[in-house]
Write a structure and sequence with these properties.
Largest sheet: 5 strands, mixed, barrel
Shape: globular
Structural class: alpha/beta
Oligomer: single chain
Helix content: 25-40%
Length: 332
């Protein structure tokens, strides 16, 4: 049977001050009226019933997940975050114990995809293929620009329409390299979405990451902190790339907002009351009640919440996480 694993343990540091430890990015309605995890579930429902969806989160966020997804039966709450490999290994073991013949899609909870129909077609085809072959499928997104913030996967020999052997994984490239990747036509963005059978995933973890596989059964906090790409995908010889020919955005920081909302005549994107004079190309996020007023500024991100306000240059939106890391040191 088809299952789904939704990874929802991140803390969303780059979306502070809206995103908080107990109510992070994936539990917020950032792009649509539904929260990002609710959107992830809705996209998967044509393929997998809620009764066979497993959400891996952490102990602090688990209560909010339950509130947002009534009827969800399977929640795995990590005692401590250890990156994606331990999280996925635990979910694979959990599902395999209940359904040894399971085939599963593993997806993040905080991506935005407009074309849900095409997404379901691609993931559905991957589930079907993974049910027949001993392979590990990663969904590679057709790049729309030479992005330097994403990892890439190079495609090799075509196996079937929309599926290729994976040739190599490449970490975040510089701009010149990213331009070459896009121009070549055989590189895809590595979106962190995977499809495989319980048997294939078990074999991969036992062969390439036995410490992780065994560790999640014991002291979880002692398990190596490692991504699933490093742990198994870059080592395995049976990796296949599925063509993710649908729109996709990881909504990685506040600068992503302007890709999803209309701009005013001055290039500003505002949610909530806003009044600007000589203000251009800004992103302004309010709480719906508080008026944000600006004069003579451009290319800024301004986010207001009841207890904190962020102001930064759009070009520095990634650095918000550096600010967040300072908060506990100052008892904030």
């Amino acid at each position: 049977m088809n299952w789904a694993v939704i990874m929802a343990g991140g803390v969303g540091e780059r979306f502070w001050p809206l995103s908080r430890r107990k109510q992070p990015k994936q539990l917020q309605a950032i792009v649509t009226k539904r929260t990002m995890i609710q959107e992830a579930v809705a996209r998967l429902k044509p393929l997998v019933p809620l009764s066979r969806m497993v959400v891996v989160t952490n102990r602090e966020q688990a209560p909010a997940v339950r509130r947002q997804l009534p009827g969800l039966k399977h929640i795995l709450a990590e005692p401590v975050g250890r990156n994606t490999a331990p999280c996925i290994a635990w979910a694979v073991q959990y599902i395999a114990q209940r359904d040894p013949q399971a085939v599963m899609a593993v997806v993040p909870s905080d991506s935005h995809i407009e074309d849900a129909k095409r997404y379901a077609q691609v993931v559905g085809a991957a589930l079907e293929l993974a049910g027949k072959e001993n392979i590990l499928i990663t969904v590679g997104i057709q790049p729309s620009r030479p992005a330097t913030g994403y990892g890439y996967v190079q495609t090799g020999k075509q196996l079937a329409p929309g599926f290729w052997r994976a040739k190599r994984f490449v970490e975040k490239p510089d701009l010149a390299t990213a331009k070459k990747f896009v121009a070549s036509g055989d590189y895809r963005w590595n979106a962190g979405m995977f499809v495989w059978s319980a048997a294939a995933a078990t074999e991969a973890f036992q062969q390439h990451a036995p410490g992780v596989w065994q560790g999640v059964q014991g002291d979880y906090a002692a398990v190596e902190k490692i991504s699933v790409d490093y742990a198994i995908m870059e080592k395995a010889g049976n990796v296949v790339v599925a063509s993710g020919d649908f729109d996709w955005d990881d909504v990685g920081d506040w600068s992503a907002i302007e890709r999803h909302f209309a701009k005013d005549a001055a290039g500003n994107v505002a949610r909530g009351p806003f009044l600007g004079v000589d203000t251009t190309n800004c992103i302004l996020m309010g709480d719906g009640k508080h008026l944000i007023g600006t004069v003579g500024v451009s290319d800024l991100v301004i986010v207001h919440t009841p207890d904190a306000t962020l102001v930064c240059r759009k070009a520095d939106a990634q650095k918000v996480r550096e600010l967040v890391k300072q908060l506990p040191k100052r008892n904030l």
